[in-house]
Amino acid sequence: MRLTALATLLTLVLGVTAVAGGEDRGTPISNPKLSPRSDPMPTGWSQKTIKINVGGVQREVIGDGPGSGTYRCEPVPYPIIISYHGRGATAARMRELSHFHDRKYCSVVLYPQGLDGLGRDSNETSYGTLKSCWQGAPYCTPKVPGTGPPETIRDDVAFFDALIDRVRTEYGSWAAMDRIYVAGKSNGAEFANYLACYHGDQIAAIAPVSGPFYYATAGLDADPSCSPRHPIPVINFHGDADRAVKYQGSGRWESCLGDLCDPPGRVARIPNLPKWAAAWGGYNGCTLKDLEAPVPGAVEPSSGQETFLSRYYRCNGGVEVLHYHTKNGLHDWPSLSPNEDNTHDDKTFAAVPAVLGTMDATEVIFKFFKRFTLLP
User: Fold this and answer.
1) Total domain count for the chain?
2) 158 in helix, strand or coil?
3) How far is CA 308 from CA 21, 58, 159, 240, in A?
4) pLDDT tens for the chain, residues 1 to 376
5) pTM, to two decimals
6) Strands (DSSP E) found in 145-198
7) Burial environment of residue 348 by CB neighbours within 10 A (0 to 12, 13 to 18, 19 or more)
8) Checking DSSP bridges between strand 152-153 and strand 78-84, what pairing results, if any?
9) In terms of C-beta density within 10 A (0-12 exposed, 13-18 middle, 19 or more buried), how is residue 130 classed?
10) What CATH number is given to the structural domain containing 269?
């Protein structure tokens, strides 16, 4: 498979536009002139909890999308966005955080719920903490604690496939199966990266935010096992004051002990984030790069934050890799207004006054997503 860019060039104007505001294309209209479809308009979803059986395990996802029973918008077919929460969080929290279901994006949006995992992360000194998580992280045990015997086997990749199948069933020709985009925060960002590396055949672009991207070997800042089957556009945000996922990487080993792990005693470390972005430039065969360019207007005096863009371009398939580095940025989903992230301490999770970001990540991500489509 290969990707084609819907626009030929992304410049720093993307950052300017995101800070200044959105655009009209794709916003709901009262009497849309919808192009002909081969099947009836779907009813649509409105914060609907959907249960899906995956290998005998009941999984849940919150779905939102246009339809005859929700709202009408154009253009059609609708893009598909899957947005994964971080460790210990919920689908409902990710829905409120990323807000891809806003009607102006005119998209089918899924917020999956993770199963519990058992392990230790960099903020903990003992084992035995149960938290929702996604496959690929060392603390996200393949065997789900508190189930069985025998224990439920986690298969978040099969769950991803099942989500796409459900959209295909519910939306038919109204869903753009060549415009499937994956976003995530923290451990959810790690899973978006995991899917792109090992199961990205159906993915048109990814947007990992504040992700750890665990690797299994010390001293590596590029994952030698990552082998995307086609070039994949990547847009990423990370703050250099993130205390949960260190921007420069971490020598602290994230561990999983006991017979719930596979393999037992699995370890991994957090890579250097600029080198992780450069590695994606390498996977995609990018030949040009612009590093650490200030994004005009992306400054927030109240928090001391300023954002810089590293861009890898002239890549295979016309894709790009964008790495937004925010000076003094925290473990947040960047936003110009208060949200669940910037109103809580990124290590203790205690409530704090809002620490506003330099741009609206959701707005910037969506503009990036809609530039790319997947072709056979």
Assistant:
1) 1
2) helix
3) 19, 42, 35, 11
4) 444 444 333 333 333 222 223 333 333 333 334 456 778 999 999 999 999 999 889 999 999 999 999 999 999 999 999 999 999 999 999 999 999 999 999 999 999 999 988 765 545 555 557 889 999 888 787 888 777 778 888 899 999 999 999 999 999 999 999 999 999 999 999 999 999 999 999 999 999 999 998 875 656 677 788 999 999 999 999 999 999 899 998 866 566 656 666 555 566 788 899 999 999 999 999 999 999 999 999 999 888 999 999 999 999 999 999 999 999 999 999 999 999 999 998 777 889 999 999 999 999 999 999 999 997 7
5) 0.88
6) 152-153, 175-185
7) exposed
8) unpaired
9) middle
10) 3.40.50.1820
Residue type for 218, please?
A: A
What φ, ψ does residue 191 adopt, rounded to 5°?
-70, -35
| Both structure tokens of 212 | 């750890």
Question: Residue 184 forms beta bridges with which residues?
Answer: 84, 208
Cα separation of 225 and 194, whole Å?
10
Range of the domain at 360: 2-375
